[in-house]
Amino acid sequence: MYISLTNSPTPAADKREKQLGQKRAPRGIRTVSSTVITLGIVSMLTDISSESVSAILPLYITGFLGLSTIAFGVLDGLYQGTSAVVRIAGGYASDRLDQPKWVAFVGYALAAVARVGLLFWTGFAALTAVITADRIGKGIRTAPRDALITATSDPARLASAFGVHRMLDNIGAAIGPFLAFVILLIVPDGFHIVFVASLAFATIGVAILGLVVPNVRSRRRERSAGTARVRVPWRTIVGGPMRRVLAAAGILGLVTIGDGFVYLVLQARSDFAAMWFPLLYVGTNIAFLAFAVPLGRLADRVGRARVFVWGHAGLLAAYVVAVLPMSDAAATILCLVFLGGFYAATDGVLSALVSQLTPAESRATAIASAQTVVAVARFVAAAGFGILWFAVGRDLAMIVVAIVLAVALPLVAVLLHPLLRATVPADASADPGARA
Q1: Which end of the chain has the least Cβ crowding within 10 Å, N or C?
Q2: Comparing C-alpha atoms, which of 311, 257, 323, 252 is closest to residue 287?
Q3: Predicted TM-score (pTM) above 0.85
Q4: How far apart are CA 150 and CA 352, in angstroms?
Q5: How high is the pLDDT of residue 166?
Q6: All domains of the chain in start order, with CATH
Q7: Which of 214, 241, 203 is nearest to 109 (CA)?
Q8: Do the Cβ atoms of 300 and 156 come closer than 8 Å?
Q9: Strands of 280-423, DSSP E
């Protein structure tokens, strides 16, 4: 992979040739801006910080604290859904002020400050506070960061750029749980050491963002202060093709339970020791980073909506495998691979799809809106599944969710039918809103 050392997606001459259809990028070569790489490194360090703590959450709640699966469902939903409270606000502030870097910086810094609390207070209340602050920080930073990725990437290779970013991001998501596992293996009661390491990685990530990443803006400003802010066109966010995308994301989010539930099902069927539990997160994230770039390229080639829908087939496969009567080792490996493939086909691809359908002046807000719909839907899914598990048992609850997802997939495919074949032409303009 070739990595550009500039923030310009392609040289002017190469762009002109592509617009005329006279040149295509050589096979196997993709250009990714240095800003995308740097943001990926920031996300990697931040994920090492957050995932080293969150990897122990399911067992900490249901094992050490002895709480029910209903409690875990609520807390897992809190982890999934808290960021929804501020996602749109973060995206709107980025578009309104045209300051994506500094809005993202606030979010990353808040998550880092939250880690300090774990050094002085431990237990359920402290963990809940840290999760809340961390997820609020994530909600603030995600859309402005994705807007920066879009602004510094070739529109025709946008899903590939998101794939590279998500690959780096998930290297951190794999290292974090492994780091926590190693620390607790060496020091069985070393939770405080995990918290110190988490704070250190978060602080380094914030420093790199503030000192290295440029504040790339999506529009040219006039000299006068009166034109520094613009009104975000909400009609482009909630109307037209975006309406279909938001509806599809919400429907599929309602049948996306948290990974922790799948891992708890696997642990129950294979009697994993508690000390090995964090490695399940490592396995999923290794699969994610392995699939992120190939599936991003595939989305650019065959259509982002299509890959987004088919990615949920991987989630369905994970649900089914989790309850199939097969070898415990095979079931575990397959579930982790399917979950990793699911995230690789949906996370960055959804942001790329939204960026494709919205103009620059509302891009961060649109990305935040889609992510908010997903977060709220997954909060409902996690809390609902915790109640369902408590009422009917783990296997039957998983079967019910798998059946509902199997029914939802063709319905969503019909809903997104106008977009399933939509790819970005080589002459993609700076205003993708006209390409719906």
Answers
A1: N
A2: 311
A3: no
A4: 8
A5: 85
A6: 30-217+231-424 (1.20.1250.20)
A7: 203
A8: yes
A9: none
